[in-house]
Every structure is written in structure tokens, then in C-alpha cells.
Amino acid sequence: MPKNENLFSSAAAWRRRAVSRLVHRGWRWVQNAGSVSADRPGPLRFGRIGAGTRLAFPQGTIFGERWIHLGECCIIGEQVTLTAGMMPGLDLGPDPVVRLGNGVVLGRGSHVIASRPVVFGDDVYCGPYVYVTSDNHSYDDPHEPIGRQWPRSAPVEIGSGSWLGAGAVILPGARIGRNVVVAAGAIVRGEVPDHSVVAGAPARVVRRWTPERGWEPPLRTPAPRPVPAGATHQQLAALAGLEPELLAGLEEKLASEA
């Protein structure tokens, strides 16, 4: 009897593994089929979607696509919400409301909600669950529920090359400069100068770079060594310790260019 029990348990374990593989393989197929690109827009009709841009499946809430323009080579993660207008079906005029430059990355679960212009420059990278909006609740009338009061709205600009950490919130009227780091969980309002680091709620500048003084306060660690031009993907993979001989070749190349 114990032998039969082992046989049955082995068969059950094999079935579980087989079902697991099928489920994961099927889900990958669904993810690929449900992703959105310029070649395969599905039911979405964006005002513009550039070559190489892809929206992962499943998407979050998306409406007002006519007023959403996506640049080239953007990566939009799973469950990202993109909305133009307070609700679907509104006519927002001739101009785009949400504009993403080339190479923008929106991490999983992020939200971009706009009724006034929200503009991302090129190569803006956002971690997961970033929230960018041109609209905020008002509470002027102390006797009226806040949700019933007309919101305040103002345009938002995010400069090229910036990085928004996980959970950052960008409020109406924010104007973020070029190559700005927004720390995880920061709440940004107002203007942020180029080449600065902001953190906190509300966010404040904690570090800034200028041509005359460099970084103030100074960076605590030395800058990473840049990847040399012409490095192959095999050599880059070697950085993870996969192939020591390729890594040695890359180190020699770095030393020769130093």
C-alpha cells in the first residue's frame, strides 16, 4: 500500500507541475496578445502612439485616448491608468491633453490623470505607483462635501531625463526641470530646478548640481564607471557573474579607456 500511495502522490505532483506550466504559458500568451502598440492598438484609439511604444496587458483605466499622445519607444507597465478629461465622452478641443515624449517609462500601477495639459519630456522614467495629475479636490466651502466641490486644475510639466521614484505624487501646477530625481513617496508641487534631487512631503530640494560647484552637498559615493562604447550584450551579461572570461575582457576595455 505505501508503494501505491507514492505512485499516486507522484502522479498528482506531476499533474500540478504540468497545470502550472500550462497556466503560466497561457498567461504569457494572453499578456502578449493583449498588449497595445501602434501595430496592434486593439480597441484603443490614441491621438498618437509612436513606433516601438508598448502598453503592457492588463491595462488600467484608459479614456479620452484622442487627447493622449504617446511618443516613440515608451514602456507603459501593467495596470497603468491614462485618462484625459474628467470622464469619458467629453470633447476636450483640438489640442492634446496628455503628452509623453520619446522613451518614457511608466511603472506598474502608475496613474496619469489630466483635464489640463500634462507633458512628459523625453526619457522620463517613473517607478511603480507614481501619480501625476492636473486636478486636485478643493474644500473652500466648509458645508459642502469635498467630493462635490469643483476641483482646482493646473498644467503639469516634467522635464526630460527625470526620474520619479516609486509612489511619488506630482500635483497640479508642478513644473519639474530636466534631469531631476524625485525621491520615492515625495509629493511635488510648484517649480523644481534642473539637476536637483527633491524629497519629502511636500518635496524640497535636498541636493543640486551647478556647473560652477558641482553637486551640493557632495555625493556620498563615487560615480559608477560608465559602460564603454561598443560593449556587447554578452559582456554586459558577464557583469552578473555569468561568464568570468567575458567580464575580464570588459574590465580590460575599461582600463584601456581610463
UniProtKB/TrEMBL annotation:
The keyword RNA-binding does not apply. This is Transferase hexapeptide (Six repeat-containing protein). CDD domains: LbH_MAT_like (cd04647). Belongs to the transferase hexapeptide repeat family. It comes from Actinacidiphila glaucinigra. PROSITE patterns: HEXAPEP_TRANSFERASES. Gene3D superfamilies: Hexapeptide repeat proteins. The lineage of its organism: Bacteria, Bacillati, Actinomycetota, Actinomycetes, Kitasatosporales. It holds the Pfam family Hexapep. Keywords: Repeat, Transferase. GO terms for cellular component: cytosol. InterPro entries: Hexapep (IPR001451), Hexapep_transf_CS (IPR018357), Hexapeptide_acetyltransf (IPR051159), Trimer_LpxA-like_sf (IPR011004).
